[in-house]
Task: inverse folding
């Protein structure tokens, strides 16, 4: 399809309506976020224009492969990027106020009080030389009214009980290495919940765990979310976890959002070639006897981003324009959004009743 | 060679590691404690279980990477001992979990894949070796130009392909695959799973497929064995096990799987197991699962149940179900 034709259609679909599910006052809004890392081999553009709104009390799933920029998006929100990384463009607003304009003091208060994170690997994110109790008290003393050791100890014990750790008193005196993987992850969750944040970011919270422990942790997170009413950003590569947990889903590839919508939209009516491929490539109850349909090629190299759509080198149905231009987000008939030229092409074919070259 | 119905016959396999628990005291860690199973030629047996249940140890013990402390393992009707394992490794190979640490970073791909050929003297000349290596690379979907590169130049999926080519070099009839896809990205997993299936069709190899992802195991396996604390608790046809699980542990394991389908996933009632897996150093008496089982009775504490046939080769080790 010629670029001119595409542009013509594009005018019609620009300025899409706001997503039906997002309210006017999101607790967190990320606008056109660009995050880059400067390395010896060049600038790594990890996040290239990600926007989303997070409403209070919702679970937002961010799904993508390694290198899709999902963790970096999470770290950008908390501004805990590595030294060589920085937000080069865009804005992150918490309750309407830009986080990028926060002073160091305000940021310290934001982390913990308003937003906290559960890291992927509980072994490397807990300090091995301090007891569990000491590490939990640290956050409590800094951010909450439990500012004496005695009060903090009592609160830590309550928190551990809440997340289902048995013998909490004993655990407080133990070191992380004395706990099992599931226990450690519970301690991480208890620490993240210590200050009752508005937003909880869970970065692959169950990837390092067994399925039975994963089920325990996911149930726990759901229950706590209902109880405390916080918003959760769940970052993971596991589509199964996303399907069972999330209200809203963002699919990321190459640092961009490919598709966003409700769980039903994404799983039953995928509109981006990457999402379609991803769903076909995982085993589920219906394709046990069939060959899986893998996505060809290898994940993207962020040092060498393609000019057009990031997924284009691996896409079966890539058009000429995919090589040249980054697709814009387009609203599907059912209301969810996808950034794929194929949808425009199909629209065009439907309207004009003929195939375009 | 004797006639055989099963390519692999494992009987009461035991692997106990001595662990220092005091200054002089040593306690046996029963990583594998009385495991028996058979695999027919050309079949895939999936082995699932939580981490620490001994599934990797089973795979390694079969290849005598650990010397088993008890039980027998017959391969093609011939008992495998430390004496004949050198010869039999030409027939049995292994693909490891982590494609990042199982390839020597100082060797080129050609040397990595060619090493088993060197060990078993399987070529006549340098040209022959190179030809065989290139053929293997083609088989697993690598380009000939990759032969001179080093492992670090490849992505995870490609490295796993190198590992598979290395295992295939000696034309084995049995391959132990120890979590071969768990370190890979979702979109790459499907490529590697498909390759395993294609190679089986083409070369007729038999797999012992060890993994913790039940959906992947269900997809690739003909039969599945479920392990808990060093023992097999249930073994059945892949579809039979998924549709009609009997052992309470299998039930909770299957209910814990996150199905990639929002309506089914939200309707799924998970059977949450209380507590953690007991330490294998301090195993509960009788049935190892009884401490977390809601059907546990007095009998479970006294005597460990053995596998009994519940029809159509569906074997379960449980007193109450």
Result:
């Amino acid at each position: 399809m010629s670029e001119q034709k595409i542009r013509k259609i594009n005018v019609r679909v620009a300025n899409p309506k706001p997503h039906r599910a997002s309210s006017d006052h999101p607790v967190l809004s990320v606008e056109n976020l660009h995050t880059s890392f400067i390395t010896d081999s060049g600038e790594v553009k990890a996040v290239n224009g990600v926007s989303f709104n997070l409403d209070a009390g919702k679970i937002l799933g961010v799904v993508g492969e390694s290198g899709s920029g999902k963790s970096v998006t999470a770290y950008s929100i908390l501004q805990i990027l590595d030294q060589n990384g920085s937000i080069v463009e865009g804005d992150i607003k918490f309750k309407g106020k830009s986080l990028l304009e926060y002073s160091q003091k305000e940021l310290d208060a934001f982390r913990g009080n308003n937003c906290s994170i559960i890291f992927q690997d509980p072994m490397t994110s807990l300090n091995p030389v301090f007891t569990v109790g000491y590490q939990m008290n640290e956050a409590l003393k800094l951010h909450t009214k439990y500012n004496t050791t005695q009060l903090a100890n009592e609160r830590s014990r309550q928190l551990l009980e809440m997340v289902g750790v048995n013998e909490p008193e004993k655990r407080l005196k133990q070191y992380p290495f004395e706990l099992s993987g599931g226990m450690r992850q519970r301690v991480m969750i208890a620490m993240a919940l210590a200050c009752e944040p508005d937003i909880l970011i869970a970065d692959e919270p169950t990837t390092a765990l067994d399925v039975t422990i994963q089920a325990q942790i996911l149930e726990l997170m759901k229950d706590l979310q209902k109880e405390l009413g916080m918003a959760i950003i769940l970052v993971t590569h596991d589509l199964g976890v996303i399907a069972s947990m999330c209200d809203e889903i963002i699919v990321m590839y190459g640092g961009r959002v490919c598709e966003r919508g409700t769980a039903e939209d994404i799983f039953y009516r995928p509109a981006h070639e990457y999402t379609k491929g991803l769903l076909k490539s995982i085993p589920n109850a219906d394709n046990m006897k069939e060959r899986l349909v893998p996505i060809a090629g290898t994940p993207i190299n962020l040092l060498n981003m393609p000019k057009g759509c990031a997924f284009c080198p691996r896409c079966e149905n890539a058009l000429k324009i995919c090589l040249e231009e980054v697709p814009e987000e387009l609203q599907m008939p059912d209301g969810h959004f996808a950034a794929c030229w194929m949808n425009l092409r199909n629209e065009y074919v439907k309207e004009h009743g003929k195939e375009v070259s | 060679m004797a006639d055989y119905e099963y390519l692999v016959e494992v009987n009461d396999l035991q692997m106990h590691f001595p662990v220092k628990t005091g200054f002089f005291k040593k306690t046996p860690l029963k990583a594998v404690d009385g495991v028996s199973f058979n695999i027919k030629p050309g079949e895939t047996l999936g082995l699932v279980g939580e981490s620490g249940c001994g599934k990797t140890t089973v795979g390694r013990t079969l290849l005598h990477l650990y010397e088993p402390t008890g039980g027998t393992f017959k391969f093609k009707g011939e008992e495998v001992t430390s004496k004949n394992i050198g010869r039999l490794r030409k027939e049995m190979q292994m693909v490891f979990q982590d494609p990042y640490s199982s390839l020597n970073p100082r060797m080129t791909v050609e040397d990595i894949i060619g090493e088993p050929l060197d060990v078993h003297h399987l070529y006549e000349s340098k040209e022959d070796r190179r030809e065989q290596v290139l053929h293997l690379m083609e088989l697993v979907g690598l380009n000939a130009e990759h032969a001179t590169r080093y492992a670090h130049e490849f992505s995870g999926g490609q490295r796993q392909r190198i590992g598979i080519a290395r295992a295939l070099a000696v034309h084995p009839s049995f391959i132990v695959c120890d979590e071969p896809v768990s370190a890979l990205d979702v979109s790459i997993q499907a490529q590697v799973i498909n390759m395993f299936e294609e190679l089986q069709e083409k070369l007729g190899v038999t797999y012992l497929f060890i993994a913790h992802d039940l959906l992947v195991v269900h997809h690739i396996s003909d039969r599945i064995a479920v392990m808990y604390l060093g023992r097999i608790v249930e073994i059945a046809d892949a579809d039979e096990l998924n549709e009609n699980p009997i052992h309470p542990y299998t039930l909770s394991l299957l209910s814990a799987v996150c199905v990639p389908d929002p309506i089914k996933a939200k309707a799924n009632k998970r059977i949450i197991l209380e507590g953690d897996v007991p330490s294998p150093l301090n195993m509960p008496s009788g049935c190892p699962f009884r401490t977390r089982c809601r059907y546990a009775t007095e009998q479970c504490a006294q005597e460990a149940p053995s596998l009994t046939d519940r029809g159509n080769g569906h074997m379960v080790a449980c007193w109450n179900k």
About this structure: Chain A touches chain B through 46 residues (CB under 8 Å).
